[in-house]
Amino acid sequence: MALYAIGDFHLSFSADKPMDVFGPEWKNHVERIRENWLKTVRPEDTAVITGDHSWGRNLEASRADLEFIAALPGRKILLRGNHDMFWDAKKTWKLNEEFAGRLEFLQNNFYAYGNFALVGTKGYCDEGRDTPEQLEKLLSREEGRLRTSFSMARAAGYRRFVMFLHYPPTSIYERESRFTRMAEEYGAEAVVYSHCHGRKRYGDSIRGYKNGIEYKLVSSDYLRFVPERIL
Ligand SMILES: [Fe+2]
Ligand SMILES: [Fe+2]
Predict the structure, then answer these.
(1) Whole-structure pTM value
(2) Signed CA dihedral, 99, 100, 104, 105: sign only
């Protein structure tokens, strides 16, 4: 039994969005995702997919992309990315109901993996697009959602945590944030995130160990589309 993570499949079975325009590393990315997954993840394993699943503008337009993920072996837990228009955070229960037994959606809840709780939310960081007021609003909303996930897990008796974000845990080149502080407060053992694409972006946030927590970037292009083992 193993825990894997990878993020940012950017699928578009129902939309015309070829990803190789984003660079040669994205060529045939869907086939590579599937082949590498089949070689890596066994049916008894769990994988957290850290957002940006689909280019679809709504659930109908994303259905084929979600079915592609559902057909992969193993237990699949999905996190929300900034491009996942099909996923209304307030209606996560609906997705969980509709895909019950096939996909699990991590938002204002947590999932158990052995004696670990898998907690998380989309997160947010400063990419220079927001006013200070907007930035604060988005950061504090995500901070609240992350705290909900942690506190539900702790109330259920969990003491060991792996924390997942879609956005990097800090804004560019920062070394701490409300998200890293919460990871430290709860004693998370790893913080796993994606969203950063292309060689110039891979170093935007923390990678490696800081204050006893391992930070891992798992964007699919960074991983060359091979799921990364977390536990
Ligand atoms: Fe992405
Ligand atoms: Fe993203």
Answers:
(1) 0.97
(2) positive
